[in-house]
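Two proteins, back to back. First:
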Amino acid sequence: ITESQSLFIRQQLTFKLSDWHAFKLSVAPTRQYRTADDLLIDGPFDPALDEGFLFDLVSGLEYTTDLLDGHLQNIAFVKNYRQSIRIESLDPSLGIVLIDERSVSNYGAGNGLRYDWSDRFSTKLSYEFAYRLPRQDEIFGDGQLIQENLELRPESSHNVNLQASYSSKPTSKIDWQVQSNLFFRRIDDLFFLLVNADDFGAFQNVWSATSQGVELSGK
C-alpha cells in the first residue's frame, strides 16, 4: 500500500471582442506525488518502490464566433499537453539517490461547428486531434505486480463526432431533451497492460486502435 498526493487547479479567462466573437484561455495544472514507502512494511525503504513526481499542464486557447444571427456557431481551439516525470530511487549499496527524468510537450487542435435549425433542433459536427497523458498508476505502476515505465508516450487520437439534439418547446410544462451522437476514434500509441508469464506486467505503447459507434441519451 502506497500513499499518493494530488493537486489539481483549473483556471479560465474569457475575453469578449463583441457579442459575436470571444476568446477563452484555459490552464489546468496537475501535480502528483507518490511516496516510496509501503505502509505494510516496517522501515523507511522498500526496494520495489521509487519516489515518483508527476506534473501535467494542459493549456488551451479557444476562439468562438456566432454567425447568421446566432444560428451558426464555430469553435476553433488549440491545446498544449505538457508532462514532466521524475523518479528518485535509493541505491542501498551505494547510499546514493538515482534520478531519472523525462519531459514531453505536444500540441493538439480541433474545430466544432454547430447549427440551430430551430429552437428545438440542432446539430454539431466536430473534429479534434488530441493527446492523453499517461496517469500516475500507468507510469509508476503499483510497486507489486505492475512495474514502472518512464518511457510511456502519450496516446494521440483523431476524434470525429456528429451530434443531434431535439428538445421540448420553450413553453412546455415538461422539460425534456433527446440527444444522439455518432463517433469515430483512431488512437495511436495506445496504452496497454502487457503481462508476462510470471504475472508481472507494465503499461506499454502498442500499435493503434479504432472505435466507432452511436450513443443515445435523454433527460
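And the second protein:
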Amino acid sequence: MDALGWRNTMREWALPDAILAAAPESPWGFPAELFRSRAELATPGDLSYANRRARDALPAGGTVLDVGVGAGAASLPLRPRCSLIIGVDSSPEQLAEFRRQAHRGGVTAETVQGEWPAVSTSTPVADVVVCNHVAYNVADLAPFALALATHARRRVVMEITGRHPTAWMADLWWRFHALHRPTHPDAGDVVSVLRDLGLTVRRHAEVSPRRAGGFERREDAIAWIRRRLCLEATRDTDVAAALGERLVHDGAFWSVRPPIEPVVTVWWDVQPEIAE
C-alpha cells in the first residue's frame, strides 16, 4: 500500500452521516481515566518491546518527543534515561494528565497542544520520537510519518496493533446499526506506506501482555463503548450484553478486552544509524 491507498482505505472508516447525526454524544476521543491508569502502570522496570527500542537509541540525559502522548504511557517508562519529555496531543485534558504523571515521576515535561503534523513547526526536535497507537487515527500517514522523522536525531519508534484497533467491534456495529466495517488498514499496510516513503523500517510483532489500565467502575467501561457506537445511554444494558465476556475486571480495573492481537513495533533510525 502507498500513501494514496492509505488515504482511500481510511475514508472507508468514516461513519455514515445519519449515524453521526443521531449520536447523543461524540463517538471520538478517549476518556482521560483510561490513559491515566495506563500511564500509572507503565514503569521503567516493565518495558515493552517498543520502550526497549526507544531506550536503546536514547543517550543518557537525552530528550524524547511523544506524539499522541495521552497521559504518557509510551514515554514515561524512559524517564530514568532522559532529561526531558515533550508531549504532543490535541486534548488539553490529556496534556494536563501527562504533566501530572511526569511530575509524579520526577521528569521535566513540556507540552504542545494540537494536531500532528500541523504543530510540528512549533515542536522541538528530540533524540528519540515515540508514537504509540496513533497511526490508525491518521487520515494521511505520509506527512505524519515524515514529520516524525524530521523531529528525531536518532530514532523513531511506533507501536501499533496488528489490526485496526476497532476491528474487533465489527459485530457490535452490525448488531446495533446493520453496518459493515472495513478490515484494513493493518500493520502490514503501515509498514508498506513507510517503506514506500523511503524509510528503512524494521518491524517486530509479538503477543505481549495486554495493555494495563481501564476504569474503576463497570458502568464507565460500558459507557465508553456505547458512546463509540453512537447510542443513547439507555442502551447500556444492551451494550453490556453484546460485549459478553469481553467486559472483564482484572482485580483493579474494568476494561473491554477484544481477542488477543499481536502488538507490532516499527522503527527506523535517522542518520547516523544507531548500532544495536
